[in-house]
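Issue 218. Parser rejects a valid record. Input:
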Amino acid sequence: MFKTSVDHIKEMMREIMLSIMQCEDELLASFTSNEQRAAIARSFEDLRERVTMVYVRTLRRGRQGAFYEYLPSIFRPKISDYDDKVKRWMKHLDSLLERYSEVVKRFREQMETGKETG
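Output the parser choked on:
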């Protein structure tokens, strides 16, 4: 079961990262200003970093025993009382994807507004 869960998480991560990169490419192609392109690239880099941190944390939780063997006790994170890790992961991912969707909608609206006025 763990193997299947990890594979599912990896597949979700691939899909999310691919979507993020495709969206970034589309947006970068639609702007000519170097400042705008740099701002978009920074925003998407930040988004990719946050998604990757969630992904790494999720995989690490699945292998806590092996991971903690090599991690000094001072760096071990405190385990929360909330036991349903899958539900917590899904809530976090849902909120991340909602924010991602909102960013995409805003950029699309800005692009449409820019095309109409330009």
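Fixed in the parser; the record now loads. Residues 2-117 form one domain.
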